[in-house]
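hey so i finally got around to running the thing on that chain from the lab meeting. sorry it took forever, my laptop kept dying and i had to restart like 3 times. anyway pasting the input first so we r on the same page abt which one it is
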Amino acid sequence: MISFPTCKINLGLNILAKRKDGYHEINSLMYPVPVKDVLEIVPAENFEFTNSGLKIPGELKDNLIFKAYEMLRKEYDLPPVKIHIYKNIPMGGGLGGGSSNGAYTLKSLNNLFNLNLSDEDLRTYAAKLGSDCPFFIAELPQIAKGRGEILSPSELNLKGMYLLLVNDGTHISTADAYGRIRPTTPIQLLETVLEAPIETWREDLVNDFEAPILNDFPQLMQVKNTLYDLGATYAAMTGSGSTIFGLFKNAPNVNDVFSFHNGFVNLVEL
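ok and heres what got predicted. didnt touch it at all, straight out
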């Protein structure tokens, strides 16, 4: 069974409070982006996991694909499988690629072995994997609250706009990013800002991670400024970074604008 895990951007991200469980209360809009990995899962005599494309760092036991399989294997006595992931979405970039891989593993195993799990069941399992994982069960624009797992649909529609994703290869640890943050109450409610014309977002739609991260990584601020120079209506960092995105009404000409040794530049129409 083959599936195509996608990614997301955050349109605004407010860090509201530190929770007793160590997580943070957030408010953000997650928007699905059609940049994809390729995930294949087939029955096998023995468990096997392989990876091509971008190399996945760390140990297998920490990979959300493996964790998702182990979770359902124990719950439903699943047989061994062979899993292959082609990684195209950069890691440590704030795009949720790892979370998407975990969620798609749950969905694929549900279909492959006819587990008859509802979307609500899958979201419950996904929340055990990670805060962003439940978003990828439905993949519609959604407001994320709590630690990111409390989702409600949003009517925001960016169809017809162009999205330019730029990742220069900088890897930012989510834990380190949270260490730079002091939770605050935003001046304007995120939902109110998102209802205003997109032209107003440049001043009012804020990712709380952005100021401290861009201060420590000035090359990322340069990327953001370049996106505005190219004509972006709105540009920002997604998640805890380091990917910077720009929203354009017309497709920008990015030939020879960005050049990174380990970078990622991707233009898609939403």
